Amino acid sequence: MASLCPGDQNCYVATLRILCAAALVVAVQSACGPLPRLNYAVPKEDYSNRTSFHVGFKVDFNCRPGYAKRSASSLYCQRNSEWAVPFYPFCTAKPCPHPAAPDNGQAVVLTDLQFGSTINFTCEDGYRLIGSSQSRCVIVQGGVNWDRDVPVCQLIPCLPPPTINHGTHNAMSSEEFSYGTSVTYKCDNVRPGEIPFSLVGEASIYCTSQDNHNGVWSGPPPECKAIHCKTPNLDNGRVMNRYTTLHTLKNILLIECNKHHTLYGSSTIQCNENSTWSPPVPVCQRSSCDDPPMTDRIMQHSFSFSSEEPSTEFPLGSVFTYTCWPGYEFRPGENKLTITCQRNFQWSEYPSPCQRVSCPTPHIDHGTVVHGPRLRELYVTRDEGRKYLYEDITRIQCNPRYVLHGDDLIRCNQSGNWSPAIPQCVPVPVCPSPCIEHGTLLSSPETEHTPGSTVEVRCNAGYVLNGPKSIECQPDETWKSPVPFCDKACGPPPDIKRGQHSDGTKEDFFYGSEVKYSCAEGLSLIGESSIYCTLGNDLNMIWSGPAPRCEMVRCPRPVIENGRMTTSRHVFLYGTTVQFSCSEGYMMDGSRESQCQEGSIWNPPLPSCRPVQCPKPDLRHGTVTGKQVEKPWYSMNETITFSCPEQHRFLACWHLFTTDTWTITCSADGRGTEIPKCTSHNQPLLVFNRSEFEPIQSVHFKSCKDVAVFYLESARGCKTQSVS
């Protein structure tokens, strides 16, 4: 070790002093101070006068009264010069027993029941606490217990309720009154004719408490007073519900003003305890004109008023407009009158009655005016002469040889005009005499045809009238309806036995007229069903052909051997059409359809069904196998089996071996099933090993192509080879 002070004696002394001081500092910093004070334990020995303890010093403790030991009760001085005080105390407070709650109350635990804790006692509403309201968990005879007894909750009492003059309450006979008890007051009755007493104030009071200890009544008792309010005197108004003249406390009156007046104040007033009305009696003031005056033959057209005024019926500024009935007016040309409600609430004008509208006197050239019975009162004025008014009716009559053009009766309408317009008298019109070829006119003895006259037309022999029998002359000098003419015609069509035509009652038929024939039920019409009127070679009218005839035509039920009728019916009348088909294995010779014709025969004749035969098939390079007999024709379902010669196989049926055969069957339609062809098997073919195919169920193939497709879809593999 190297020396700090080599050869220097003073240096050694100084160093020694420094080391001693450092040792003293270390010794002072490694000691704990005075013991901490614990509220739950005290040291077993008295260390009150000691202020320093060396590291590792142990102090044992005892639990204070009211606490119990839970774990090791020691403290140690640690190296950091701090006492090791445990986080959880090694002495815990002892618990007091659970407190009992008073009747009609409860015990309130504030924190817990441990030593030193406090509980409160409270009572329910209406009860007061007799005793201490708190209790504390303290040490009692070495243990812990509550320092106060459980208090008592007593019902809060009230003094008897006060009495009132001229009244009583409903508990006069009771002596005790407790919290929540209520009493109701009422006033005494009075003799007839006296003002009854009214209860002023709350009719009921009840026992309550303001400090939860002493009982008091909820309020002062009511009073019994003789209250009478006078009936209000209303100008321009009235009381709506006045059923009596005696108005007592809280009586309510409904006030309403007369028409054209407005209420200022409340419409509802009540009699109060001071014998006055509250709110004050309202006032009715004029706010509208009277209803607009009415007069004869007027109707209200429009009405408006100022929104600034009270909304009464006709307030200041209201405008009322009269409109006369249609055909009436106040003054000539004026059928409306407007009046206004003024500040004095009087109308600006009062209307006069509406007068009837007048029409001008009609002037008729070549005619006169005849006053009919419906003409209303006519009167003569100094300047106007005869005067015509609304709804007056007059008649117009023309002079001789003049006719009226228009209506003869005219009426004075609501606009002051004649309706319809005044007619004119014009010269009488004359219709020209009609020219009827092959006919004559049968007319009246007058030489001229004036409007309203008629003439009759008569045709010469061999001609028929086409048009109306008579015509009438019209005011426009034309004949009413087209002028008829005489034309040639056919006579009645020929009748048929057991039938009829469509115009049975008609006698004459013009060119082009058509009639249709029909037979009685069950009969058939033979021939054309209709004929028409036409022009013959000699220019005379003739019918287009002879009439048909009605006959009983029925054909026998058609039957064909080895066939059937496809039409389902039992009766076969003239014109009925049926269809046929042959049974399976037979072919039809003839028409498949036939119709019932005249003479009860079928046309075309009924067909026949012969057995189906197939011709011998022509199979090139193929032969019939076995002992089958070859013949030119084969019946239905007969079969022929073929095989191909050596070095040949059936064309396109690569799945067959050269030793396989092919069978065809004669089908019901006279054709054989598919006929194969034999071809040389030197051609490339798709060949399959039969062992490579999965077993399959029996399948019906219609052709060789079906077989090939099936094998292509189901084969697991194939290869192309040349078959030698």
UniProtKB/TrEMBL annotation:
Q: Enumerate the spans annotated as Sushi domain.
A: 30-93, 94-155, 156-226, 227-286, 287-356, 357-427, 429-486, 488-552, 553-611
| UniProt-listed InterPro entries | Compl-Cell_Adhes-Reg, Sushi/SCR/CCP_sf, Sushi_SCR_CCP_dom
The record lists its disulfide bonds as: 257-284, 398-425, 459-486, 490-533, 582-609
Q: Which Gene3D superfamilies match?
A: Complement Module, domain 1
- Tell me which positions the record assigns to the signal sequence: 1-30
Superkingdom of origin organism: Eukaryota
Asked if the record carries the keyword Disulfide bond, the reply is: yes
Keywords, sorted A to Z: Disulfide bond, Glycoprotein, Repeat, Signal, Sushi
The chain's coiled-coil residues are: none
- Tell me the PROSITE patterns matching this sequence: SUSHI
According to the record, the segments passing through the membrane are none
Q: What is this protein called?
A: Zona pellucida sperm-binding protein 3 receptor-like isoform X2
